[in-house]
Task: structure prediction
Amino acid sequence: MSNAANFDFSGARVLITGGSNGIGAAISNAFAGAGADVVITGTRASASEYEGDLSAYEYHQLELADKAAIEALAASLERLDVLVNNAGANFPGGKHEAVPDVFEESVGINLFGAYRLAVGCKDKLAASELDGGASVVNLASMGAFHAVPIVPGYSAAKAGIVQLTKNLAATWAGEGIRVNAVAPGLIESNMTKLMKGVEPLERPFLDRTPLRRWGEPDDIAPVVLFLASSSARFMTGQTVLVDGGYSIT
Result:
C-alpha cells in the first residue's frame, strides 16, 4: 500500500513503544522513512526474536507493567523529540478482564504505563528543538467511546488515554510539548487477528463502518506523523478518530 503523505523528521529522535509489529511497526517504518532516528520497544529479549527485520531501529525490551524498566528506559535516552505511546495489550496473560485483578492489570498496562513513560521523558521532550515542538502521540481506541464488554479493562484504559491526552496537553503546553492521540477503528493486527474471518465477531463492526473494510496499520501511521509534525503545530489535546466512519453511524 503506497503512502502519498510525506514528512521530514531528519535528525529527530523518536521512541515508539510496541514498535515491533502491527500498528507500531507501521509507525516505526514511517518515521524511519522520514529520516528519524527511531527507538522501539517490544516484550521479547532481543529484536532478532521477531519475524520482521528490526535492524534499522534501536531496540529495548520493555514490559509496561514494570515501573523500574519504564523509568530506566526514559533515563537511558540522551534526547527525545517524539514519544509514541503505542504498546498495549488486552486479555493480559489470557485471563478475562471482567475479573477485578485482571481489569486492574489491563488498566496498568494500557494507561498507567503510558503515563509513567511520558512523565519520565518529559524533561527531554521539553529540551527538544523540533520544528513545531516536541510531541507525545498516544494510541487510544474506539473502545474509549463505545462499550466493549469483552475487554472492559482495555476499554476503560483507552478512555483514560483520551482524558490523559487532554490533561497533559494543557499542563505541558508552556514547555513546548504538544500531546495528541489517535483512536484507530478495526485494524488488522496481532490484537485483532482472532476476529478476522469470524463472521459473528467482525460482521457487526464492518456493517457499521461506512468504508466497509478493515483498516490497515498503514492507515494509522501517516496520521501519527502528521500530529508529530510542524503541520500540526497548532493542535494539542486532540484525539483523531481513524475508523473508516464507524463513529458517525
About this structure: Helices lie at 22-33, 67-76, 100-126, 152-172, 199-208, 217-228. The longest strand covers residues 177-184. Residues 13-242 form a domain with the Rossmann fold fold (CATH 3.40.50.720). The chain has a mean pLDDT of 94.
